[in-house]
Every structure is written in C-alpha cells, then in structure tokens.
Amino acid sequence: MATLHIDVEFGGGMELLFKNVREHKIDMPEGSNLKDLITYIRDNLMTAKQDLFVMNDTVRPGILVLINEADWELCDGIEYKLEDGDRIIFISTLHGG
Amino acid sequence: MSDVDSGPLRAPKPKAGTCIKCKTRPSTVVLRHVQYCKDCFLFATTGKFRSAFGKSAISNTTGHKAMVAFSGGPSSRALLHLMKGFQHVGSHQSGQKRLFDELVICHIDETAAFNGSSTLDMARVVVDTEYPDFTFHGQLIEDIYEDEALSSIDKKEKLRQLFAQAGSLTAKEDLLWHIKMHLLVKAAQKLGCTRLILGDSATRIAIKVISFTAKGRGYSLPLEIGGDIHGLYPNLVILRPLKDMLAKEIAIYDHSQGLLNSLVPATNFSTMAPPTASIDRATEEFIVGLDRDFPSTVSTIVRTASKLKLASSMNGQSRCALCHMPIQSGSKDWKQRITVQSTQCTRDSAPGTLTVPENILCYACQTDLSESEGWSRLADDASPSTQLEEFRSLGYPTLLTQDDMHQRIKDFLLDD
C-alpha cells in the first residue's frame, strides 16, 4: 500500500505539547483522513496532556488547523482525505496575550 | 498526483468558494461564515486595525509617546507587527505625520514567579532586529519591589512567597495580572508615555466579560474591556486596538506574516493547566468551545458588553490598592445580606475571618485575598492607613500615590 508523506507543523505555543519540536514528518497509509492523522499524533507523538490537543476525536476548540495554507473549515474539516505531500499546521490561538 | 497539486493554492476543496471581497481568488480563510482569500484577509485585518485608531477623536496619536505591552504571545506579536505597518505608512504619506511620536515596546519578564528561564533577551532580540525604530524596555517582574536594599534574589524570593500564599489558581492569576499592569503603568509613566496599548483580542475580551463577572468585577468591567479608556491612570490612556479581532484572525495573521517563529514562550500558572484549573481557564474553555459551534458567540458578547456604562456612583476617588479599579461602596453590607456568615450547628468561625477591609480593596480583590494567609490582619475596624500598612507588609504592591492615600485617610487626620 502506498504511503502518504505528511508535513506537520505546530505553532502558537502548541509545540510545547510536543517537546518544543515544531516540524514533524509523518507517514500515513493511503486512504487516511485528517481524523486518522490526529489520532496518530495523539498516540505516537504525545506522552502527556493528550486532552489539550484532542477532545471528542477532533482537535480541541481554539486550535486552528490549516491544510496547505487553507482554513480546514473549507476542506471538509476532520473528514479531509489526506494526500501525499500535504502540509498540515496546528496553531494554538489562545496562548498568552 | 491529482489536479489539486498543481497551483500554489492547492487546498480549497469542495465547500471552498471564492473570496467575498475580490470575488476572483479562491478563499482560504473563513471568519464568521464569511470567506476571504489571503490577500483580502490581510487587507481587511490591517484596515480594521487602522480604523481602531481612527474611531475615536480623542485617541489622536501625534504628539504622543506610546507604550506597547509585548508579552510575546500571539496577540501582542501581531500587535507589534501591525503597529510597524501603521507607523510606517503614516510617516511616508505626504502631509501626514508619524502616528505616534515614539513607540516603546515593554516586555515584562515574569519568569521569576515560575522558575523559568528568562524571556527578556528573546523579546529584546525580536524588537531590536525586526523593529529597530521602536525602543525596547525590559522589565523584571520582581522589580515590583522597589526597595533598593533588597537584592535581586531577595526580590524573587519575596515574589514567590507572595504567590505561594495567594491561595487558589484564580487568585494567583489575578495577582499576576495586577502586578503586570502595575509595572506597565509605572513604566509608561516613568518613560513619559501617554498611551498604553494592550493586545486584548475580541476572544480575550469575551472571556474577560464572563470571567470578570463571575469573579465579582462587574462594577469596573467597562474599564477592563474598553478600547479607549481615559482617566483610570493620571496622564495615561489605555488603548485596545485588537478588540474587534478574533483570536483566530490573529493566529492566521501571525502565520501569514511568519511571526509564529518569533513568539516568546509563555510559561505561567495556567500553562498546560487542565480546563477547570481556574475561573479564567474554565471560561476560556466555555467561550472557545461555544464559538466553534456558534461562530458569532464572541462578537455577540463583545458587542453587548461594549454597551455597558460606568455606574453614576463611581467617583474616581476610592481605588482598590491592588487592582486600582474603583471600589463600589457598601460591599460589606451587601455581602452580609446575601451570605451565611455563621451557623449555630457548626463550630465557631475564627474571629476576624469575616472582616472586610472595604476601605482599601474592591470586592473582587477582597474575594481573592480572603483565601490568602494574613487576610485576617487586614481587619476592617482598623483605619485605612493601618490597613494599607498591613497590606504592604504582606508583600503586596500598591499603585496608590501619596494623594490617593491622603484622600483615603483624610477622615482620620486632625485638621491643621
């Protein structure tokens, strides 16, 4: 089965949840959607505080998701079907002032 | 490879339409159900920022030195960048002067309260490299103690003790904010700034409306959320030019301008804290969650709260020693009416715990402090000057000037 190479980036303070590493390269099986990616990140990149990233199988409110520079609300949100080379950015919108 | 891989903007999928403004480019951002392309979004954002200054005739900018509060978080990072564009255009257009005569960027390093590594240098580097026209002013939070006999280590220790005795996380967060506000106001006044610019977003203001109400700060709420506040501090106007921008707009702006790489990491009491850790955190969770499903939540709260007016009873004389907000008189009577102060079947409450020093503290600060050690020392039957002395001896900073204090204790002074 083909593999999808996904670039994942965390910003706005979210990187604190990922040992301060902002950029990650993640391989997902073909046919995966954004929800699968989020679950993968929760289960493989996080050792604690998972609930600050994921809530009810989607990202916590207040986290902005950009799919190839576009608002995920324009791209089917959590159901978006990943494609090879996609760049997914998670940005915390409420951290500090 | 599918066809969406071809252009630079390959993302917009089924639901994406075209931008509502230019009606030609595909949209990449949704705000309150409205779709924009990146260029039109940026144009609208800078326009909104500009009009925040243009709205009020009294917040004119020329002849004024302004201080921008820069924590280094997403909002103040965007604020700094927007101010640069704002100043720049102003200075280059013919016949138009620079907006503010001078801009001072004030960063408060609050890490002493949390054992973190200093943020001062990071903030300084951001300002010095990207905004050389602005003046950087760094301030250590422990310098709230101005006693020169104290070493830096002593001050840090004193500050940590103050926070350690402050009780709940809510009380700690409030105290931290009051201290930061003290330092900003003091720095602004010392450096001759007549404007203090804060980066509160619409989302933050909506959260404040609800949490401040919950904490009993309703009386002074209009002063805490207004975009243009005069008279709260001598010769200093508080401005909140981001008050019509959602946290989401600010995050997209930061990202599109490449500012996310130069945020100053914030470590404080609520960092990584669970959603119910404090009133502020719980409110944030509530508002942001609601806003996801109902995207007009934030703007509805902000617009409704902006109609609030200050009570006519507010005379400006009686200010809280901790938060400097006006004190609503009669909170003691009111508290006694609505709360159970003693019960016959439980053991007697310790004497002194029910006293309310409403002469020097507002209702909300009384509530915060009632959890702290040393509260009972602020007995209500003492004169305000004694209360203030006790208050200071507990390690709390106060912004009150000699005039304020004289006003407060004048009833106890003998005539000359």
UniProtKB/TrEMBL annotation, chain A:
One of its GO terms (biological process) is invasive growth in response to glucose limitation. InterPro entries: Beta-grasp_dom_sf (IPR012675), Mopterin_synth/thiamin_S_b (IPR016155), Urm1 (IPR015221). Pathway: tRNA modification; 5-methoxycarbonylmethyl-2-thiouridine-tRNA biosynthesis. GO terms for cellular component: cytosol. C-terminal thiocarboxylation occurs in 2 steps, it is first acyl-adenylated (-COAMP) via the hesA/moeB/thiF part of UBA4, then thiocarboxylated (-COSH) via the rhodanese domain of UBA4. There is a cross-link at residue 97 (Glycyl lysine isopeptide (Gly-Lys) (interchain with K-? in acceptor proteins)). Belongs to the URM1 family. This is Ubiquitin-related modifier 1. The gene is URM1.
UniProtKB/TrEMBL annotation, chain B:
GO terms for cellular component: cytosol. Pathway: tRNA modification; 5-methoxycarbonylmethyl-2-thiouridine-tRNA biosynthesis. Keywords: Cytoplasm, tRNA processing. InterPro entries: CTU2, Rossmann-like_a/b/a_fold. It is found in: Cytoplasm. Belongs to the CTU2/NCS2 family. Plays a central role in 2-thiolation of mcm(5)S(2)U at tRNA wobble positions of tRNA(Lys), tRNA(Glu) and tRNA(Gln). May act by forming a heterodimer with NCS6 that ligates sulfur from thiocarboxylated URM1 onto the uridine of tRNAs at wobble position. Prior mcm(5) tRNA modification by the elongator complex is required for 2-thiolation. May also be involved in protein urmylation. GO terms for molecular function: nucleotidyltransferase activity; sulfurtransferase activity; tRNA binding. This is Cytoplasmic tRNA 2-thiolation protein 2. Pfam families: CTU2. It comes from Bifiguratus adelaidae. One of its GO terms (biological process) is protein urmylation. SUPFAM superfamilies: Adenine nucleotide alpha hydrolases-like.
